[in-house]
Design brief:
Strand content of chain A: 15-25%
Strand order of the largest sheet of chain A: 4-3-6-7
Number of domains of chain C: 1
Shape of chain C: globular
Distance between the termini of chain A: 91 Å
CATH class of one domain in chain A: Mainly Alpha
Oligomer: heterotrimer
Largest sheet of chain C: none
CATH topology of one domain in chain A: Cytochrome Bc1 Complex, Chain D, domain 2
Radius of gyration of chain A: 32 Å
Chains: A alpha+beta (290), B alpha+beta (299), C mainly alpha (437)
Number of strands of chain A: 7
Chain lengths: 290, 299, 437
């Protein structure tokens, strides 16, 4: 029995290492491999990347340069190591976005911009790194403007993308989210139509604040031009936020004890101790009666 | 109804904000282990601080912005007892994803300064006799809406807050252990002897939301990492998990965020589509931790 | 009482007061007790210094022999109510010579019970929190309130009928130090044996005797509720209150019988505590044991028939598993067999009855252990990820010493009380005799 367990363990281990070796080569499609960042890496992108890294990557990859990544197979590795730094920006981007095996896919969790910030953060540990920029010569970067409204008849968030001069922007990619306390709930990813409008369905049952306002986040991107909107839109179900400790319960704090319990406890206490005190004071009468 | 735009130019400001919040998040549970402030030049003083995972880091005081203006104890106490307004925290544990990695247990024990045998979160190996299924079940405090532990506490040392979290005040606790007896989930543990590194944290002032430093002769338990929630961060265990087991969020928003992938989903939908259940609902404790059933054998 | 009728009242007084002195024997006995108690105190200081970790308690079995000991002490203290109050109120005459013994037992057990609770606290330095922050929703607050009330009531019930006897001590006892004489004087509150004083005292006694019945029931019911009000399978029982109360009368009666036996022999009270008293106490013990057996049957058969979820495991280990040896020894050897033996008249003579009572009392202690500990060893969710030694509970030396401490303290209190005051109410005996004549 014990022997067979050992054999199984060895087999399992062998299998795992075989898989690990097979996985060592993680091929990235050429187009993705050569992809370049839509952002120019700077302190801002590094800071945003760091925040995302701490929250989502650190548990496995550890603190960069410290090689304190979690022991698993295949090894997650330290992102500051050559293993990572020798890859192209596009390769890093692709791997974060798609994931494989134990490395989760972050496609639904992070926008492209956020993944590029992560790449920017990873690159910050490489002093020799020079960001390769696409050839922007002759390309006019549009200045994008977002116009957000909510159509309650069709339960849809209406996002209109224009230029500064209110010129309609068709074919701009738009992503919309509801900003939750710990993360962004994606409402979808759309391209604007010929009128520069993208629609996002919002479930009218989703709880908003007391007046139904939701924290909405919209991002758009077109030809290296970006815009972002963060604000409150009255699109949710008006909800009154109740305190979890309202009322008087047995589990409430001492001050909020149930009334019936206060009455019974005090009545019994006063009743019994009243008699006891009566008797104790009555003891003085013995002297008078002598 | 039309609301107007914000432009790319606000980006920098936005990042500044989250950047500061990021540092704030690090500094909040910090314990200043001795103000070795070495004044080098003008305002560039560096202090050594201890992070929750017991690492000594040097931080430039210029970058350090105190999250709590008055770090005084009374203020901390009051915050700890009151909780976050308008929130109702819930946790969803997807048993199908748990691989018994135990990163949650480790990060929890290091954040709360627990000994190896003390568990605020404990990953149990469970057997379902009917299906022969073996699965791993992380078990934490259920933060019940009808908490039997709070009901029996004689001194208000354990209490429920407006955001639904059940906390402990270890400066109030008399160590009667009635709450341990009353909890059907065995979620509470006791400091039978001097806590881990008692000498090191002797003079550190007590942070109720993190429940550190631990004190001998008092009860300790999962706090849903109330200190992290205040900073807008996910609990230690939730963000430590490499396998996407935990979702955490505010039930009032109906949104929960996965600690590994950061994917945010609708709570009601997640629970309904995965046939979520609570532990021993028949006891009427009304837990705030939900479990998604295990699907396959992990062994 | 027949034997007393021939005796002169002065002789009765003399005989009953003869043990109120500090004889060499009693001083040596007390010295030994104090020495032993000091050892226990040493262990308690160890516990104060190193925390409850010196005990065998762990996160799963967090209540151990301290709590079972507390339950036992509360149980034994209940007898004062039954004997001196209920029996007194319905006018049972034979109980008269042992009513004070019952009160001494009740008061000392109740006082010590209050102290045991403190030894179980992780932070005894925060005892005052109970009074500053007390939450009336917590059974512990009820328990403390009712224990204090019961101690005060028991004290008054012991004290009031002592007043006339203290005057007697002051006047008649020759071998006592002057301060003791002074103490009698102060404590007797100017008593001069007038009819008015007796009438007033009897009125107060009647009030207190009525009052102590609900309080005594409350003290043990609330103690049972410390368990029954939790959601633990095995404790979660609606009959825990009466189950505990009936068990308490068994333990208390046994304790009184043992005390009677020792007082009778060492204080030469054979004419006052007679075979008749032992016989009747034996019968009383049979009666209360019968009630207790009945509650035991209910408490075990009902869940054992259903074997629902959490209770099944606990019951199986109790009836046929790891705890079964202790369980059946206690149930058969400590309850059923003694109870059956006591039906035989010969067994109700002083010596056999006392031996049986000792067995019953020891079994009663282990019975409390069986109620408190094994249930915690079977929580709803498995005990995992803790070292092997923390999975099971076994008391340590320090813990046993701290548990023995209350027993020694109890003996000290009982000895001091019975060296300061006559253990048989002299004025009541005299009054009774005069009445019969």
């Amino acid at each position: 029995m014990k022997n067979s367990k050992v054999v199984w363990t060895i087999l399992l281990f062998a299998c795992c290492s075989a898989i690990a070796m097979a996985q060592e080569k993680w091929l990235v499609p050429e187009a993705n491999n050569d992809m370049l960042s839509i952002l120019i890496f700077d302190e801002d992108t590094q800071l945003e990347g760091k925040l995302i890294y701490t929250r989502s990557c650190r548990s496995c990859h550890g603190d960069p340069t410290k090689k304190d990544f979690t022991i698993m197979s295949p090894s997650p590795g330290d992102v500051a190591s050559d293993l990572y730094q020798d890859q192209t920006d596009g390769s890093l981007f692709y791997k974060i976005q798609k994931g494989r095996g134990p490395m989760p896919s972050f496609e639904n969790a992070f926008s492209e911009e956020e993944i590029w910030s992560l790449v920017s953060y990873i690159r910050s540990f490489n002093p020799e790194y020079q960001q390769k920029l696409p050839n922007l010569e002759g390309i006019e970067i549009p200045n994008l403007t977002l116009h957000i409204s909510y159509d309650e008849n069709i339960d849809k968030l209406v996002v209109k993308v224009t230029s500064d001069s209110l010129e309609v922007m068709a074919d701009a990619s738009v992503k919309a989210y509801i900003q939750g306390m710990f993360g962004k709930y994606p409402l979808g990813s759309e391209m604007t139509n010929e009128l520069g409008i993208a629609y996002f369905h919002i479930d009218s049952k989703i709880p908003g604040d007391t007046e139904g306002y939701l924290d909405i986040l919209v991002k758009t991107y077109k030809d290296y031009g970006t815009a972002k909107y963060a604000g409150k839109i009255q699109a949710g179900n008006p909800t009154i936020r109740k305190s979890a400790i309202e009322g008087r319960h047995l589990w409430s704090a001492a001050k909020k004890a149930p009334i019936w319990m206060i009455i019974i406890f005090n009545m019994m206490g006063i009743g019994i101790w009243g008699v006891i005190i009566y008797v104790i004071f009555g003891l003085r009468k013995f002297k008078k009666l002598s | 109804m039309e609301t107007k735009l914000t432009q790319t130019s606000t980006r920098r400001k936005f990042l500044e904000k989250i950047g500061l919040a990021g540092i704030g998040a690090v500094s909040a549970p910090l314990i200043v282990s001795g103000c070795n402030s070495t004044d080098s030049g003008e305002s560039n003083s560096v202090i050594k601080v201890l992070t929750p995972d017991n690492k000594l880091v040097e931080i430039d005081t210029a970058a350090l912005k105190p999250v709590l203006e008055s770090g005084d104890k009374q203020h901390l106490q009051k915050l700890g007892r009151e909780g976050l307004k308008g929130k109702k925290f819930v946790m969803v544990i997807d048993l199908a994803r748990c691989q018994n990695e135990r990163a949650c247990m480790k990060s929890c024990q290091s954040a709360h300064q627990l000994k190896p045998e003390q568990h605020h979160i404990n990953v149990l190996e469970m057997h379902d006799e009917d299906s022969g299924l073996t699965y791993y079940m992380p078990k934490t405090c259920q933060h019940c809406d009808n908490p039997p532990c709070v009901t029996v506490c004689p001194v208000d040392a354990t209490f429920k807050r407006q955001d639904g979290i059940v906390l402990i005040d270890n400066e109030r606790c008399i160590g009667c252990r009635f709450c341990i007896a009353a909890c059907p989930y065995s979620a509470r543990t006791f400091n039978w002897t001097d806590p881990k590194d008692a000498e090191k944290y002797k003079d550190v002032s007590y942070n109720m939301e993190l429940n550190v430093p631990q004190k001998k002769g008092t009860v300790t338990k999962c706090a849903f990492s109330a200190d992290q929630l205040r900073e807008g961060n996910l609990p230690y265990c939730v963000s430590a998990c490499p396998n996407g087991v935990y979702y955490f969020g505010d039930a009032n928003e109906d949104l929960v965020t996965n600690g590994t992938t950061r994917e945010t989903v609708r709570l009601s939908k997640l629970l309904k589509e995965n046939a979520a259940y609570k532990l021993m609902p028949e006891l009427g404790t009304k837990p705030n931790v939900f479990y998604l059933p295990p699907r396959q054998s992990n062994s | 009482m027949e034997s007393l009728k021939k005796k002169d009242l002065a002789l009765i007084e003399l005989e009953l007061l003869s043990h109120v002195n500090w004889s060499r024997k009693s001083v040596i006995w007390l010295g030994t007790l104090v020495f032993l108690f000091a050892i226990c105190i040493y262990f308690y200081f160890q516990q104060l210094k190193h925390g409850l970790g010196v005990t065998g308690l762990n996160d799963y079995v967090s209540w151990g022999i301290y709590i079972s000991n507390f339950v036992f002490f509360v149980a034994a203290s209940l007898i004062g109510m039954l004997i001196s109050s209920i029996m007194g109120l319905i006018g049972v005459k034979w109980i008269l010579p042992i009513s004070r013994i019952a009160e001494i037992i009740a008061l000392s057990f109740a006082m010590v019970a209050g102290l045991i609770i403190i030894t179980d606290m992780g932070r005894p330095d925060r005892l005052h929190h109970l009074f500053i922050y007390g939450r009336i929703q917590s059974p512990i607050v009820w328990d403390i309130t009712v224990v204090i009330t019961y101690v005060v009531l028991s004290f008054l019930l012991l004290y009031l009928p002592l007043i006339p006897d203290m005057i007697l001590c002051k006047d008649k006892c020759s071998q006592i130090p002057p301060f003791q004489r002074k103490m009698y004087k102060i404590l007797s509150l100017g008593w001069t044996n007038t009819t008015g004083q007796y009438q007033l005292m009897k009125r107060f006694m009647k009030i207190l005797m009525v009052l102590i019945i609900p309080v005594a029931l409350a003290i043990h019911t609330v103690t049972s509720w410390l368990f029954a009000l939790t959601l633990r399978a095995g404790w979660d029982s609606a009959i825990f209150g009466p189950y505990f109360v009936s068990g308490a009368f068994v333990a208390g009666s046994a304790a009184v019988i043992i005390a009677m036996f020792f007082y009778r022999n060492s204080f030469k009270l054979k004419d006052y505590i007679t075979h008749v008293h032992f016989d009747k106490m034996g019968k009383l013990l049979v009666m209360v044991a019968l009630v207790y057996v009945y509650f035991n049957i209910n408490e075990i058969i009902v869940p054992a028939y259903k074997l629902k979820g959490g209770e099944a495991e606990h019951l199986k280990s109790m009836l046929a598993g790891s705890d079964s040896i202790m369980f059946w020894t206690v149930q058969l050897g400590g309850l059923i067999i003694p109870f059956a033996l006591l039906v035989i008249k010969r067994m109700r003579r002083p010596l056999p009855l006392t031996i049986i009572s000792v067995i019953i009392l020891v079994a009663a202690w282990f019975k409390r252990y069986l109620i408190v500990v094994p249930i915690q060893e079977h929580p709803y969710y498995p005990i995992q990820n803790v070292p092997e030694e923390l999975m099971h509970y076994s008391p340590t030396i320090a813990e046993i010493a701290i548990t023995a401490g209350p027993f020694i303290l109890l003996l000290i209190i009982i000895t001091v009380l019975s060296k300061l005051f006559p253990v048989i109410p002299i004025w009541e005996i005299k009054e009774n005799l005069e009445h019969e004549k």
